[in-house]
DNA sequence: TAAAAGATCGACT
DNA sequence: GTCGATCTTTTAA
């Protein structure tokens, strides 16, 4: 079963299965501990909501690719495309534990403790050395590889909650993380988030 | 400890 | 011209 076939399922189904997976780029490898599902056309929180644009084109391609975008002009955030082809599903890689290339990751983030090296999507992208040029990389054949876990994280260790920092659709509990893992990032609600508390 | 603000630039309208 | 699936530093309790 190919990587793309394993990822050819709805984002909400694939997201928890990515916990414990390892993303490797050069010397650095990160074990994923926190992800978020983005459903695509029906999800106001997704970049794909409203149809294809120059930025989100990768989301409308096949599963098993890396979707990278620039956040706040500074940080590269990474997603894995999932679901059916032309169905713009994706899973945001929110946080992880650096399991290889610790010296390289430390050099890229000199002011971080080891725990914080990839604790947050912007930090994760920085630790791995991602750039916008990495958008669209095939994770089965390219320089960046995704290794799914031999044994999935048990469902009893997976926790869910609302996605972090979104203004739209901020109440959907589509964030998944490994319970009690120290590298999971803290939840922050968007200051102007829409939803129950926004009125 | 929590909240606020500044940084910074490609994508979008 | 405005905005953001963020991070860091500063300021206030």
TrEMBL record:
Gene Ontology terms, MF aspect: alkylbase DNA N-glycosylase activity; DNA binding
Protein EC: 3.2.2.-
Database matches in InterPro entries: Formyl_transferase-like_C_sf, MPG, MPG_sf
Keyword Hydrolase: yes
Record carries keyword Cytoplasm: no
Enzyme class: hydrolase
Keywords assigned by UniProt, alphabetized: DNA damage, DNA repair, Glycosidase, Hydrolase
UniProt GO BP: base-excision repair
Gene3D superfamilies for this protein: Methylpurine-DNA glycosylase (MPG)
Family: Belongs to the DNA glycosylase MPG family.
NCBIfam families on file: 3mg, PRK00802.1-3
The protein's name: Putative 3-methyladenine DNA glycosylase
Source species of the chain: Nocardioides simplex (Arthrobacter simplex)
């Amino acid at each position: 079963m190919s990587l793309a076939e394993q990822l050819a399922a709805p984002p909400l189904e694939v997201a928890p299965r990515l916990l414990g997976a390892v993303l490797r780029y050069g010397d650095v490898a990160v074990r994923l501990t926190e992800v978020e599902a983005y459903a695509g056309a029906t999800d106001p929180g997704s970049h794909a909501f409203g149809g294809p644009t120059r930025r989100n084109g990768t989301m409308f391609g096949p599963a098993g690719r890396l979707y990278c975008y620039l956040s706040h002009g500074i940080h590269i955030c990474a997603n894995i495309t999932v679901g059916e082809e032309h169905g713009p599903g994706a899973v945001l890689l929110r946080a992880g534990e650096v399991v290889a290339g610790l010296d390289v990751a430390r050099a890229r983030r000199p002011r971080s403790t080891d725990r914080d090296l990839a604790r947050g999507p912007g930090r994760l992208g920085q630790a791995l050395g991602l750039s916008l040029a990495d958008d669209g990389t095939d994770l089965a054949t390219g320089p960046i590889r995704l290794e799914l876990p031999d044994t999935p994280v048990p469902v009893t260790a997976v926790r869910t909650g609302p996605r972090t920092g979104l203004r739209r659709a901020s109440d959907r509990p589509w964030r998944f993380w490994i319970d009690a893992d120290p590298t999971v990032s803290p939840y922050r609600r968007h200051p102007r988030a829409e939803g129950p508390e926004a009125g």
